[in-house]
Amino acid sequence: MIKTIDAALFQRMVIHAHAAIHAQKQPINDLNVFPVPDGDTGTNMSLSIGAAAAEMRKKHYDAVGAAAQGTASALLRGARGNSGVILSLLFRGFAKAIKEKETMDGRDLAIALDFGVAAAYKAVMKPAEGTILTVSRLAAARAAGCARESDSIEAVLEAAIQEGQAALDNTINQNPVLKKAGVVDAGGKGFLVILQGMLDEIRGLPMPDLGQTDAAPSGKADFEAMAAGDITFAFDTVFIVRKAKEDVDLEPFREYLNSIGDSLVIGEDDEAFKVHVHTNIPGSALNEAQKYGTLELAKIENMRTQADDLAAGKHVQSTDDLEAVEAELESMERGGPAAPEKKFGFVAVCAGSGLEEVFRDLGVDGLVGGGQTMNPSTEDILNEIERTPAQIVYVLPNNKNIIMAAEQCVRLCEDKKVVVLPTKTVPQGICAMLAVDPQAGEEENTAAMTEAFGRVRTSEITYAARDSDFGGFAIKQGDYLALEEHQLFGTDRDLASMLDRLAHSDSHQRAEFISIFYGEDVTEEQARQAEEIFAAACPGAEVTLLPGGQPVYYYMISAE
DSSP state, 435? Predict the structure, then answer.
């Protein structure tokens, strides 16, 4: 058996580990259910260690300790998602243990694995059993036991993997969420794939081709058994902060974040720290972070919406990808913020070509794609603000789950004044734009726009993604759902019947103006029938029909 490794072999082990998890990332994605089935653990871990593998390909190290330090540093900057951050912490502790070593044997490996586990547990405020932490802890404990009998690095690593696999198999019994979905922990699985890749390199086994991806899952989470209502903290919040000073104490910040959320992980190096937390108030987390340094990047996503989409079998767009945002920003040839050419500018969030055209016609400068099915990040909104050539930029989030992300731009934008109007629906945003007076002052416009969107009541018709009992309604998959001001109004198997019931609601019966925006899955003929239903039911209102082109929602209806 191989007893020791040098820096060159360690570098190849990291590269092999990346290839191994890249090949299995989709089966690992299919396992992921905690705390929400966001399905990207395999991708996040693959991309995270991929950053380290790229570093190992670029540089030559003379000592294994230096190679491990380079791996840990690259992993921290490349860490994506909760699983990626924890992986970076495991390697950071690992690197600290062997930083002075030129070569590494089995005993060194056992100590390094133990240091890695300690670093990961220290960073996670509430370590949960049945996770990557459990798997790594038990694997490290077995490695320590083996090292007392043999100093062969191959033997110790093999023992760690065997014990880790037993721990992984037991995660389904330790975590109620995993048990409900019938799978083992995705992060723990990914960690073992990485260790196995490293062992395979020691043994001289061929490396998987980076073009190879194993699409056959060994197990898949039952997403229909999961529910958005099971999610206590809705917003998956990830951000990087450049430290104000090298020795900044993050313990008070850890305690604060723990008080407003869960799934907290903080990874750091001497210059910056990266935070992953699930919370209902991401804006507060970002504001508190700025006491410790300068906020560089932030991504916020709505996990409840993501859970619903996955339960419906739809593709979910993950926003938990800071490095992709960095690359996007670097590739944009903006030449800095647009110089002010006028007093007022406007940025709106919406999805659908028809809605975009309406906002353009009303004078909106920048449009950010997103809405119920995709919440844009603070950075996405900030980019549009900076491209808007105005002194004062109004932001219309048009969705209650985007307001807090938009509000972060107030602090982040240094060259313009940002005013966020808390519009919760697209019709509210449109009505706010109708109230703009280019000749008025900021206070007058803010008051007028706020008063205008406050008069709007919004109804929406979509479909049920799965069977559910909600609000006294027995909902079946495929039912039409009508919402009024985000509250469930009713369900029906017949769309015309649903439209008629909605048209006879109090808000529409009292309305003077009704605007019907029809979605991308509705034909013009079907939309005309909806218009006729409302015109007949609401004779005192002026009914207007417009193509919205919005996804998922068949109709978006405003009443004033």
Answer: T
Rounded to 5 degrees, φ, ψ at 551 are -80, 160
In 3-state terms the chain splits into helix, strand, coil percentages (rounded to 5) of 50, 20, 30
* Burial status of residue 487 (CB atoms within 10 A of its CB: 0-12, 13-18, 19 or more): exposed
Residue 187 pLDDT exceeds 70 = yes
d(CA 515, CA 455): 13
The three-class DSSP label of residue 518 is strand
- H-helix or E-strand spanning residue 513: strand 513-518
Residue of 209, 223, 190 lying closest to 42 (CA atoms) = 190
Q: How far is CA 276 from the centre of its chain?
A: 10
Q: Which of 536, 482, 498, 494 is nearest to 514 (CA)?
A: 536
- Three-state helix/strand/coil letters over 125-192: CCCCCCCHHHHHHHHHHHHHHHHCCCCCHHHHHHHHHHHHHHHHHHHHHHCHHHHHHCCCCHHHHHHH
d(CA 425, CA 174): 41
**126 exposed, middle or buried (CB, 10 Å; 0-12, 13-18, 19+)?**
exposed
**Crossing angle of helices 153-174/132-147, nearest 10°?**
150
Interatomic CA distance for residues 534 and 458, integer angstroms: 14
The percent of residues above 90 in pLDDT, for the chain, comes to: 50
Contact 383, 409 (CB under 8 A): no
Q: What is the pLDDT of residues 216-230, one digit of tens each?
A: 445 655 545 555 555
Whether the pTM exceeds 0.70: the reply is no
Contact 177, 146 (CB under 8 A): no
pLDDT, average across residues 422-434: 94
* Euclidean distance between CA atoms 222 and 510, whole angstroms: 45
**Which residue type does 232 have?**
T
Measured CA to CA, the distance from residue 518 to residue 543 in angstroms comes to 13
Determine the angle formed by the axes of helices 132-147 and 106-123, rounding to 10 degrees. Answer: 150
The mean predicted confidence, pLDDT, of the chain is 85
Contact, 107 vs 147, CB < 8 A? yes
- Confidence bin at 372 (pLDDT 50/70/90): low
Q: How much is the pLDDT for 329?
A: 42
What digits encode the pLDDT tens for the residues 55-114? 999 899 999 999 999 999 888 777 665 687 789 889 999 999 999 999 999 999 999 999
**Residue 28 pLDDT more than 60?**
yes
